[in-house]
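Teaching note: in complex prediction, the entire set of molecules is handled at once rather than each chain in isolation. The prompt given to students was simply: 'Predict the structure of this complex.' The entities are:
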Amino acid sequence: MEIQIANESHFKYAEAICDTIAESAKVRGTGIAKRTPEYICKRLGNGNAIIALDNGKFAGFCYIEVWGHEKFVANSGLIVHPDYRSQGLAKKIKEKTFELSKEKFPDAKIFGITTGLAVMKINYELGYKPTTFSELTDDPEFWKGCQTCKNFDILTRTERKMCLCTGMLYDPATDNKKKAENEVTKGHEKANPKAFKKLKSIKESLFIKKKE
Ligand SMILES: CC(C)(COP(=O)(O)OP(=O)(O)OC[C@H]1O[C@@H](n2cnc3c(N)ncnc32)[C@H](O)[C@@H]1OP(=O)(O)O)[C@@H](O)C(=O)NCCC(=O)NCCS
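The expected output is the structure of the full assembly:
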């Protein structure tokens, strides 16, 4: 299995990607934004998409979109062909898309909206947190993408405050803060290992319930 950044040589897979997305939405019975082959070709050609191929056969796809002048990016359109499901492929594609997002747009918040448990699980493991739509981009172009979803009337009725999808957000600032805190902790441990060990054992005795 080859998982790579897509380019123009992958335009020939646009049709297969659209068909797989549409078929899967039908089977799931949930709403999904419809995509045309032209729309997918744009994503395949701009260096912001990941495609998985098995000996030249389409296996999976996901793309990055930039919103609100690079304040936000979304990892969207995740699809794994039914022949390749339940083998961890979606996870690998999402991880690669996430890494590419951080590399190309290091300051952007990364978000997605989904009704799918698999996607929620993957996002959570990558460090996304569930949130309300108010914390996501207010770029109207992003929400326009929902127009082709069968639940769009709900989104409109609630004035874009909520719908059936759950919003999930990764904030690089929170992640960097956590990393910095970990560094400080490591620094304390290095500077005074004995005192650190004692403090740790006191904390554990106070907060961790001992097994009987
Ligand atoms: C959702 C989808 C991308 C998952 O692809 P996949 O390659 O089978 O997923 P993975 O094997 O990487 O599984 C990732 C995790 O999700 C879980 N999972 C996979 N499919 C699931 C499902 N249908 N329901 C619940 N959990 C599921 C897996 O158990 C795994 O969790 P774990 O790490 O705790 O074991 C694929 O089923 C698909 O393309 N579906 C149709 C399109 C779709 O729903 N896209 C998302 C739109 S937001």
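Point out the following to students. Strands lie at 2-5, 49-54, 57-67, 72-80, 109-114, 129-131, 166-170. Residues 24, 28, 78-80, 85-91, 114, 116-119, 121-122 surround coenzyme A (CB under 6 Å).
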